Amino acid sequence: MDATLLSTIVLLGGFFVLMFVKVPVTFALLISTLCSAFISGTNFTVMVRMMIDGVNNFTLLAIPFFILMGEIMSAGKVSDKIIDLANLVVGRFKGGLAYVNCVDSMFFGGISGSAVADVSSLGSVVVPLMVKQGYSPEFSVGLTVVTSCQGVLIPPSHNMVIYALAAGGGISIARMFIGGAIPGIFLGLSLLLYCFLFRNHYRFPEGMRIGKGDSVRWLKFSNTMDKKWRYTKKAETFLIISTPLFTLEMGKCIQILLNAILPMMTIVIIMGGVATGVFTATESAAIACLYTFILTYFIFRTARLRDFGHILKNTLKTLAIVLTLIATAKAFSYMMTDLRIPDLITRTLVSITDNKYVLLLIINVLLLVLGCFMDMAPLIMIMTPILLPIVTNEVIGMNPIHFGIMLIFNLAVGLCTPPVGSALFVGCAVGKTSIEKTSKAMLGMFVVMLACLMIITYIPAFSLFLPSILGI
Amino acid sequence: APEAAAVKPVVLKLSEVHAEGYPTSLADHEFARLVEEKTQGRVKIEVYTGGTLYGQETASIEALQIGDLAFARVSASPVASYVPALNAIQMPYLYNNGAHMWAVLNGEVGQKMLSDIEASKSGLIGLCYYDAGSRSFYLTKPVNRVADMKGLKIRMQNNQMMVRMVELLGATGVTGIGPNDVYSAITQGVIDGAENNWPTYQNMGDYEAAKYYILDQHTRVPEILLGSVEALKKVSKEDLAIIKQVAKETQEFEISEWAKKEASSEQIVRAAGTTVISLSPEAFAEFQSKMAPLYQEFGSAYTDTINKIKEIGKQFK
Amino acid sequence: MRETKSPYSSKVRSYLVSNHLIVDVADHKGLHLIPELLRTLNHWTHKLILYIAQVALALMVVLVILTVVLRYVFNTGIGWAEEVPRLLVTLFAFLACAIGVRDHMHISVNILYNSCKEGSWVRKALVIFTDVCILLCGLFLLVYGWQYTKRLMSLPGTLPMTGWPTFIQYIPAPLAGFVMTFDSLLFLTGILDREELLYSEKEVDYTKIVKQQHENVSEGRS
Ligand code: NA
Ligand code: NA
């Protein structure tokens, strides 16, 4: 067998086998790369070079900063404030909490770039409330998980930075950020519409109308609360914060608004800075860190100084995963380039069909399947160098920004699907539901997501309209 | 000869950060083609464009040093950390025009620097120079004299000398804005403009945001095709000589491709209604005269070389 | 010679003991002293790299904010403000990799592992195989990272802004390689307990929780 073919098989096959036997993705990438390099006679020191090259990048600094920002926010317990605001906006309608669940992720998306963070911080408050009001636990968890995907699309999102890096630096992070806003909000609104259309099918309970009588009803409701109820503590905090809502005090409403808007100002800092070119993505992320630090430590005072060690540790933990992956994926993709694998895949795909729409469908199915088994960051790092040349060549002629949004949307769906879906797992653990039952309850929502995915894939305007009118 | 064909060719890699179709990429392919032809297939060069092999030029230089890469096309500016004399040819407002620069580079001064690269024990071989044109300002306001530059905020590369240059002209150099974000920074009024060569000005679409191209041609930093001492040990002395010879032959090819590229970019930019301002000789002299402190600060170590370059310039008024 | 023990020094001592940063010679005699020494050395190594990583992270934020302030308030910049954070993020990334190995933070696909019974030989084999793979990665970074650094050391070349030699960019690789090799060797020999974590609380195993719930539900039905 010729050495190139053998090392191609070792590179790709070795990677999947190693991953299947529980070797961490990072090291599965590195070992298959080294084995393949050994066969093809490539010097090992090149791989050291490539790993360093992957992380020795100023833009990459945005990732630790965005993650640090998110950690500071969650230490400052911002999620309660976000839910209050969502409740103020849509809580009063029939099925109010279902809408709150859709809207809170839209707001939270502007703060966090992580679906898992969304599920664990918002979900642990909203799910118990929904269950108590009479929503089925599976539906509540499912909706929380699916809506959380907005977090990775609505800016800021460190996954977009990873994509821009994986694409080789020719892509403006500002454009990626702004491009993700409409698809993210579109997903949220579609789910909102889905809840609205099926409000009678699911027999949604009445919402909490803001009025004098309602406050009484709400208090009554809280008094009859089952003492064995598992989430009493969190629900109580929620009640304490949200009681003013139902007494319709203008002052309190404004307070809720302010409390939620201050954290959401980070998106203004980041997007304002990045879109106008005042700051680079990295700089805006650093400034957002400073802002959230001041917010939680001096304005809200919801975090204590000794929490800071915890914040740093949590940041370190996420980064250990993400940054190392970037380093080893770089070595892996060097080996792929060296073996001309992207060319091979392009030629194979184009030989199957030269129909643009069919090709895009194949790519979507491929990504969805891979997304069911693997996490987002490694897939972005591995698939971008392979797929970007395919979609940007003359047959498909896709804009790299549009492709990036499509890729991230696809992989976000993977976060909610079994067998491996980190958002789904965390959601089921938070809501104490089984994965099988929850997935069944989510079928309708999956249909909504896939429909959104198709629209975003085939209508570039969804991703490109905003960047173009803002002139960036 | 049949025996020659039976010998397995030495396969060498060339790294290029520019995209396929860019003048330097075309020259790389031409270089690869000629080497294969002239060595009768003994040496085969694989060209990797678009930074697929090494994303940054500095990275590819280090790879050359170690011998992991055989060739790289890079800008002269990072090579200056190995051969400091190369800083001399990058000074602003040094050349009167392109012909002046080529007289320097192909003359004694430039060829000495090229051989200095190999003599520097850096593990690099300087093969030839390629054209990268000249960089000029593009702004939202017209500039005809130095006085017009006052108070302008101009995006510069993160390079102390270049920032100092605009400061001496009365403007402010803004660093930290990536090339992809220059357009929005101009439209949002964060900066009044930036500086680059014709193809980049056109390619990035920046001409839609900054409508005045001030043809001051402040710097002309050439590209260099580098080889690796370590990796080229794999080829015979005769083939190495052929490679060196062929590299020099591709220079003219690249210069003409560059001229074509520049002309087509210029045409697109002009057709879009951009005002191109050519500086009067007096104005150019005024820009030049402002650089005295900068030459003191950054050029004092290479005064001899700079004087030689200026001497040559007398023929290119 | 008897020391007079101040309450302060005993506090320090108890901190060191509880964090496994001191070897209690009395408790570990003879051959048992060697693993204990290695364990203590490992803890010191990780204490050190954790501090370096945290300082690097804080420095990166400060430097980047400083650049923005200098640019918009004082209209100047610092030339090395891009180069130094880049060196720091490289250092940080590689240290984080080593930290991730120590506390098993790196993501892996657990489908096969979870489908096997707890305590089964397949699970044990998978864990050992993973450790061997990590050991190989550590050795690779240590040996080839050091080779690369050494070769660059012998060649001229400086970073454009700071003027520092180019080889310093590569030091994080052998450094992380050393710590990873050290850790995985101690895991493989059983000197370090896999369950004992340094940086984090034990990761919540959501799959396990969900599985448990599922079992409870089906038990309830039958
Ligand atoms: Na939600
Ligand atoms: Na986000």
From TrEMBL, chain A:
The keyword Mitochondrion does not apply. Keywords: Cell inner membrane, Cell membrane, Membrane, Transmembrane, Transmembrane helix. GO terms for cellular component: plasma membrane. Pfam families: DctM (PF06808). The chain crosses the membrane at residues 6-21, 184-202, 256-279, 285-303, 315-337, 357-374, 379-397, 403-430, 442-466. It is found in: Cell inner membrane. Residues 12-461 form the TRAP C4-dicarboxylate transport system permease DctM subunit domain. InterPro entries: DctM (IPR010656), TRAP_DctM (IPR004681). GO terms for molecular function: transmembrane transporter activity. It is a multi-pass membrane protein. It comes from the Bacteria. The keyword Glycoprotein does not apply. This is TRAP dicarboxylate transporter, DctM subunit. It comes from Sphaerochaeta globosa (strain ATCC BAA-1886 / DSM 22777 / Buddy).
UniProtKB/TrEMBL annotation, chain C:
It comes from Sphaerochaeta globosa (strain ATCC BAA-1886 / DSM 22777 / Buddy) (Spirochaeta sp. (strain Buddy)). It is a multi-pass membrane protein. GO terms for molecular function: transmembrane transporter activity. One of its GO terms (biological process) is C4-dicarboxylate transport. GO terms for cellular component: plasma membrane. This is Tripartite ATP-independent periplasmic transporter DctQ component. Keywords: Cell inner membrane, Cell membrane, Membrane, Transmembrane, Transmembrane helix, Transport. It holds the Pfam family DctQ. It is found in: Cell inner membrane. The chain crosses the membrane at residues 48-74, 86-105, 126-147, 167-192. Belongs to the TRAP transporter small permease family. Residues 60-185 form the Tripartite ATP-independent periplasmic transporters DctQ component domain. It comes from the Bacteria.
